[in-house]
Every structure is written in C-alpha cells, then in structure tokens.
Design goal:
Oligomer: single chain
Number of helices: 4
Structural class: alpha+beta
Order of helices and strands: EHEEHEHH
Shape: globular
Radius of gyration: 13 Å
Number of strands: 4
Distance between the termini: 14 Å
Largest sheet: 4 strands, mixed
Helix content: 25-40%
Length: 109
C-alpha cells in the first residue's frame, strides 16, 4: 500500500499515524474514509476503509492513498481542497496530473 508524500488529512482525524498503521494491517476502522488514486479509471476515488480490508483490495491495493478523512463529507472536502490547490498552482483542475507531479515516486500512473 503506497501513501502520498504529502498525505492530506482531514481536520477531525485524530492520530493519523495510528490510522495508517491500521490500514496497512487491514484492521477495521469504521469511521475512516480513504481518498485513493484509481489506476483503472485514472481518477481519485473515495473508499470506506472497510472496503480496503476485503480480499480483493488486499491483493490489488489502490495505486496511491492520497488522503484520510473522518467521514464521507470530510473526504469530499479534502478533494475540494486538492482541486483548489491544483487550480492555484497550475490553472487547471486536473487532480491526478497535479498530484503525480508533486510525488512521482509513490504516485503510480
């Protein structure tokens, strides 16, 4: 499981290091949502953390985890923040291009 260099963390996520450790071990965290790069569609996707503990995602993890949020609404707020940063930096709202330009080692296109 790859994590983005500048991982986006929601304001209400407490102890993000512990959440990352639990994600790597596929432990249940019913409150956690994950924003990840989906290589098949070349887009960002929002996953409930319980989905990533299923056998399919254990064998085929997402390309790169970009953000952690406490709830679905906060996950969409993080995507909005990424879009605003991309727009300010590049003048375009192409999130995948923006994120892969910052961290090409961990962000697998």
């Amino acid at each position: 499981m790859n994590f983005y260099k500048n991982l986006y963390i929601g304001d209400t996520v407490k102890k993000p290091e512990k959440a990352i450790r639990k994600l790597k071990r596929h432990k249940k965290q019913p409150w956690l949502y994950v924003i990840a790069y989906d290589g098949g569609t070349d887009r960002l996707a929002v996953y409930h953390s319980l989905m990533l503990s299923q056998w399919y995602y254990k064998e085929n993890p997402p390309g790169c985890i970009v953000g952690l949020a406490n709830g679905r609404e906060e996950a969409f707020d993080l995507i909005e923040r990424i879009a605003k940063e991309s727009l300010a930096a590049t003048g375009q709202a192409q999130l995948v291009t923006y994120l892969s330009g910052i961290d090409p080692e961990n962000f697998k296109k």
